[in-house]
Amino acid sequence: EGEGEGEGEGEGEGLEVGLVAPDFTLPDTDGNLVSLSDFRGQRVIVMGSAAWCPGCQELVEKIEAWYVESAEPDQLAVSVLVEDTTGDSADLEDANAWRERHGLTFPVLADVDRSWRDLYSTGGDYPQRTYIVVDSEGVIVFFKQDGDRARRSELIDAVNAAD
User: Fold this and answer.
1) Which one is catalytic: 34, 47, 56, 156?
2) Could you confirm whether 56 is annotated as catalytic?
3) pTM (predicted TM-score)
4) What are the start-end ranges of the E strands in 14-137?
5) CB distance 157 to 133 below 8 Å
6) Domains of the chain from N-terminus onward
7) Tell me: the pLDDT tens digits for 129-149?
8) Helices (H) and strands (E) in the chain, counts
């Protein structure tokens, strides 16, 4: 096996650039179940966030500005709210508050059972802070996690370069 982020026992397996992103299904702010595979055919930025995280708040607002101003029709951003303001699992109320507080027009999903965190965690101090860009086939073209905060330009460059 090759070396790289995402290798380990159980958690976070398959989180490497060039591999198909593990599918997940979570409720959106209306309670509808949404899966990553629902977005096949689109280039997608997926941002794991915590409501208590100032860096997450700043980045999600910057991505919203990009999404509204210059995203192409086949580009999408998705916010997965992993934790509420106290560090507990996010629920639909938390996800709606996150969407409203930051004026988000793209999908916001709630990791109500921590299944997304478990699937996408590679450990570290801040596993809820995960940034992924997938191409139209669901292949990971960008992955960054934990203290390695992604910058707006990195995410936008990755989604623009994706097929």
Assistant:
1) 56
2) yes
3) 0.86
4) 25-27, 33-35, 43-50, 75-83, 108-110, 130-134
5) no
6) 25-161 (3.40.30.10)
7) 788 999 999 999 999 886 556
8) 4, 7
